[in-house]
Amino acid sequence: MPAHVRNRRLDDDEFFRIRREEVLPQWETGRQVADLDECIAAARDLSHGKNMTEKLVEAKRNGTHVLFPQFGRALTEYMIEGIRFVADEGGLGTEAIWNIYSDSYTRKNDYRSAAAGIERSRKEGMSMLNGWPIVNFGVDEARRVMQASRVPLTLNSTDEDGRLASEIALAAGWSAANVRSLQEVIAHCKDIPLAEEIRINQYEARLAALYTERGVPICPFNASNLSGYDSAGYRSFVCVSESLLAAEQGVKYQFIEHGLNMNLIQDIAMIRVTERLCYEYCARFGYRDVEFFAGAFPFLGAWPPGEDEANAMIAWNATIPIMGGFPGIILKCQDEAFATPTKEGMAKSVRLARHMLTLMGNQKLPPNSALEEEEAMIEMEVRALMEKCLEAGDGDMAIGMCKGVEVGWIDTMLTPWKHNHGKVRVVRDAQNAVRYLDPGDIPLPDAVREYHRAKITERQRRDGRKVDFNTVVQDLQFASILKGRST
Prior knowledge:
The structure is a single chain. The strands form 3 sheets. The protein has a 5-stranded parallel sheet. Strands 2-3-4 form a 3-stranded parallel sheet. Strands 9-10 form a two-stranded antiparallel ribbon. The relative contact order is 0.11. 52% of the residues lie in helices and 9% in strands. The protein is built from 18 helices and 10 strands. Helix 12 links the parallel strand 6 (253-259) and strand 7. The chain has 487 residues and is of the alpha/beta class.
């Protein structure tokens, strides 16, 4: 086990050495954010009245919801145009936070290719990148985008190393930093070891904490979107384990955000269990002043190509966090089956979600036995894996997570990451909740194993056939098939 994989806070000497030697030299725009004191002072002014943390604190206190539209285009002028278009045409009010995503080249730290994409976009007169290349444009352009928005901005800089992107975004008054090492390797990586991804995210978490300590509260994403189709217990474990890593670096606010599997009971149970256990485990290790905000990311599996069916997906994915009482509602749009969101598509999604909030009012899913049972099963699974990893790491979650991946306790079905064992198989039950057909080497308690078997048996009785590997494959497309249409 590499010596640097420890859940310990980076001291100032180590942080600034990494910043000077590894992060800022990645691209020429790193020089623009060399003076951290100046960056924090500017961010304090730019984010005044447009701070993500403050927005989530208010929503949680008042029991309201915050919409997160998403957008990313190759040129700054396209970004500003899109933000203003959605605000005007979608009726986007102040109860919103923009989730701006970077392009694929930026996510892979291939800034030369991103530069070529910028030039081609200018030549073609259209966006030739699938996001905004924040590192290439640098802090001045990021500040222009911030000034064009009436609401807070956050940056989705997912992938192996988003440190420089987060440096630039934070210096521009955005919220940015991520604390999601296991999430990232499962969702976006092939080769990088988990130990190295944890080390990278320790820097991002400490950066966020430094801004917070100096008067600019930052709420990093602690996400569990993964590859889009994972068990509820696995998703919950990802966020709970990573909450400890972020808290050790001094992060005081975390946006725990789950990708949905689109079963109302299971998804609400999953998010409630995650929030509860994040508080509990952080308090157990002495991090008693961390506040968590729950949110939901729309289903990341295959989306239907039909506009009507896509609208049904958008509405249902918004209904779940509304009924769960979770403040954060991230939006996808009708373009999802074919492309990244357009400004027109995202404006439609904002209008749809706003009307859903009007129609549903303050309705919430009432307590019921099915929800209680689902929460109990998820909680048992997460506790079992957390305790297994803490035992293996002698109380150090970073070490325990790495060992868990190595031996296969931490495992899921779909990922490009070569270090994942891939023994797990999941299917949907009769209510379209996700269940373990085969949990592989995950240390599931016997009661949880039996619960999943019983739910799969219900589907077998309904369908009149055995649930097997063919069912696993079939279920991958359950939401994207257009039923009742002629081909």
